[in-house]
Specification:
This protein folds into four domains: 70 residues, no CATH class; 108 residues, PAS domain (Beta-Lactamase), CATH 3.30.450; 159 residues, Alpha-Beta Plaits (2-Layer Sandwich); 262 residues, TIM Barrel (Alpha-Beta Barrel), CATH 3.20.20. It is built from 24 helices and 23 strands. GO terms for molecular function: cyclic-guanylate-specific phosphodiesterase activity.
Length: 663
């Protein structure tokens, strides 16, 4: 304002000087140039009028400039007022806390958000310093660095922990700016902050979900791989005195628990399973859930003896009864053990080795542990190569049926055949089913193999019938994978239509365990197959865990007595009791009994004596290609069949219900 007054005074003085110069100069000039007083007076009047007009014009111009400047200032003030109102509205309504202090750091203004975040009222903080909110978590060096940044750069931003009025600690992201006036003097500090506690918790929750299993609260595969990688790298250093071990632990038949008792029970069992493993865990061990019911235990500085002792302890703990929802459950586990860095130089190889050992433990009967060896890797590579070759074998028609005769035990005559899959490799020759069937089940090729063998067997049986062979049936195994596909009955109907084989000539053998995988679904599938007119047999009966009530509901036509029970006949008391019971049970339900695995005459004689209906095994004949089958009226093995056949029928076999299909 003082500058404006000074400029105005200078302008007035200049105008006065110029005006006076104009007045005096014009009078002197007129007196010298003109002698006539009238002319002089006239010109003086004209000069005065000109001066008045000039002054008026000057005043008008000055007035216009002043009015324009005033309008500009008015607009500027209006814009500034709008800006200030907006700033005030933002200050009042923003969700971020805003704090203003003077140069001595005393609080002069706060916005409502600060009160909501900290819990303090405005009256409680005005005049105080921001140390009121200090959490005590930061040392003096932290604050010195902050004030140094404000002094040097006039700006600081970062994360800081403060304390609410309630005493609760919270994290905030804060930006502080130092405000200076036109003379470069510090006048205020303005701080803006946001509560990032929830954001930090969200990040922590996300990190937990990313790296931990929610059900068992254990590291998941992602975190385990990172931890195992670090541990493996440490073991490769010069300072490492010993390697470690990886134990892969997999529950046996856990799928049956989920399907029979429900996933809630399965989850509860997994929690108890993990809790028992926790009891075996000590320092230097990492326990993680890799997938489903497979857990991993990584142990530092672990010898083979220690790993074996740990595996035995785990198996012993798991063999104890599980009590879930007032229900007792028993379950076992298989453990594969691999060592590092001796057997593996990276985590991927270590997992492969442990998985190979786990496969070996399962192949050894489960409920045990197995160590990795190079031989297991060779076997795994062989399985991979075998799977590739098996796909080619399907395409190149290398899988063919071999036929094992099934004899009527009373007469000794061949009444049917069981079609068994065989692989005739062009270079390796005949490959044992024990090698390729497990691979086919793992890769899912078993269903395609079943369909191929089923169609070829039906076509061959019809050809024999056309030749006049006295053949009652052909029996074909159906894998669990093919059985549980909903379209099995449709596929069987199409095969029967293509080959021309009557439905009653076909017997489909389904294992007891396959039926129990999905008991209700199995009942529906069995009913559809019965409606086609085919006969049904339960294979390997006695090795599963089906109930008698469910067996009755299956409404099948035959039971196949597992060869494990036949092998000990007639001297093993347990096998004798089981065999008698199965035969009696089957006949009381109106079912026929087929005994498999008969190799000795005394076995056949015992079965005949106890009214077993049919029998098969190496004692009668090995599986052969169709062209090599020797058709003979009676079995070459003598076990008393002729004497039994001579007895009256009423003495040989108890009456059975009409449910039995005449074969």
């Amino acid at each position: 304002m003082k500058k404006i007054h000074t400029k105005l005074l200078v302008l007035c003085l200049v105008y006065c000087v110029l005006a006076l110069l104009w007045v005096f100069s014009t009078d002197l000039l007129l007196q010298r140039l003109l002698k006539n007083a009238f002319d002089i007076h006239t010109l003086q009047v004209i000069g005065s009028c000109t001066s008045v007009l000039f002054t008026a014009l000057l005043l008008y111009v000055v007035g216009r400039c002043h009015a324009s400047r005033m309008e500009h200032q008015r607009k500027a003030r209006s814009l500034q007022e709008i800006y200030l109102r907006n700033a005030a509205a933002i200050f009042e309504s923003t969700l971020e806390g805003v704090i203003v202090t003077d140069a001595e750091r005393h609080i002069t203004h706060i916005n409502p958000a600060l009160g909501h975040i900290t819990g303090y009222a405005e009256s409680e903080v005005l005049g105080r310093t921001p140390s009121l909110f200090s959490s005590g978590l930061h040392n003096s060096d932290f604050y010195q660095d902050m004030w140094h940044a404000l002094s040097e750069r006039r700006f600081w931003s970062g994360e800081i922990w403060n304390r609410r009025k309630s005493g609760e600690l919270y994290a905030q992201w804060q930006t502080i700016r130092a405000v200076y006036d036109d003379n470069d003097r510090l006048t205020h500090y303005i701080g803006v902050f946001s509560d990032v506690t929830l954001l930090k918790r969200s990040r922590e929750d996300l990190a937990y979900l990313t790296h931990y299993d929610q059900l068992l609260d254990l590291p998941n595969r992602l975190l385990f791989l990172e931890l195992a990688k670090q541990q493996l790298e440490r073991s490769l250093t010069m300072d490492s005195k010993a390697g470690g071990a990886l134990l892969l632990i997999d529950l046996d038949h856990f799928k049956n628990i989920n399907e029979s008792l429900g996933h809630n029970t399965g989850d509860a069992l997994l929690k108890e399973f993990a809790a028992r493993l926790h009891r075996c865990q000590s320092n230097g061990m990492v326990l993680a859930r890799l997938d489903g019911d497979e857990l991993a235990l990584l142990v530092e500085q672990c010898s083979a003896e220690r790993a074996a002792a740990l595996a035995q302890r785990i198996l012993a703990d798991l063999n104890q009864v599980f009590i879930l929802q007032e229900q007792e459950l028993f379950i076992s586990a298989s453990i594969g053990i691999a060592f590092y860095p001796y057997d593996a130089q990276n985590i991927e190889q270590l997992l492969r080795n442990a998985d190979s050992a786990l496969f070996k433990a399962k192949a050894n009967g489960r409920s045990t542990y197995a160590f990795y060896s190079q031989e297991l890797t060779s076997q795994a590579c062989e399985r991979v190569q075998l799977a590739t070759s098996l796909r080619q074998a399907l395409e190149q028609q290398q899988l063919v049926p071999y036929y094992q005769p099934i004899h009527d035990l009373k007469s000794g005559e061949i009444v049917g055949f069981e079609a068994l899959a065989r692989w005739q490799h062009p270079e390796q020759g005949l490959i044992s089913p024990a090698r390729f069937i497990p691979v086919a089940e793992e890769t899912g090729l078993i269903a395609a193999i079943d369909r191929r063998i089923l169609e070829q067997a039906c076509r061959q049986t019809q050809a024999w019938l056309n030749e006049g062979r006295n053949l009652c049936f052909i029996s074909v195994n159906i894998s669990s994978r093919l059985f549980h596909r909903g379209e099995l009955d449709i596929q069987v109907a199409k095969i029967l239509a293509r080959t021309g084989l009557p439905a009653h000539r076909l017997i489909l053998e389904i294992t007891e365990s396959a039926v129990m995988e999905d008991a209700e679904g199995a009942m529906i599938q069995l009913d559809r197959l019965r409606k086609l007119g085919v006969s049904l047999a339960i294979d390997d009966f006695g090795t599963g865990y089906s109930s008698l009530q469910r067996l009755k509901r299956m409404n099948v036509h035959k039971l196949k007595l597992d060869q494990g029970f036949v092998k000990g006949l007639p001297h093993d008391a347990g096998n004798v009791a089981i065999t008698r019971s199965v035969i009696t049970l089957a006949h009381n339900l109106g079912l026929r009994v087929v005994a498999e695995g008969i190799e000795l005459p005394e076995q056949a004689a015992f079965l005949l004596e106890h009214h077993c209906d049919l029998g098969q095994g190496y004692g009668f004949g090995r599986p052969q290609p169709a062209v090599n089958i020797v058709w003979q009226s009676t079995a070459s093995m003598q076990y008393g069949q002729s004497a039994m056949a001579a007895r009256p029928a009423v003495d040989r076999l108890p009456k059975r219900s009409a449910q039995v299909h005449t074969q």
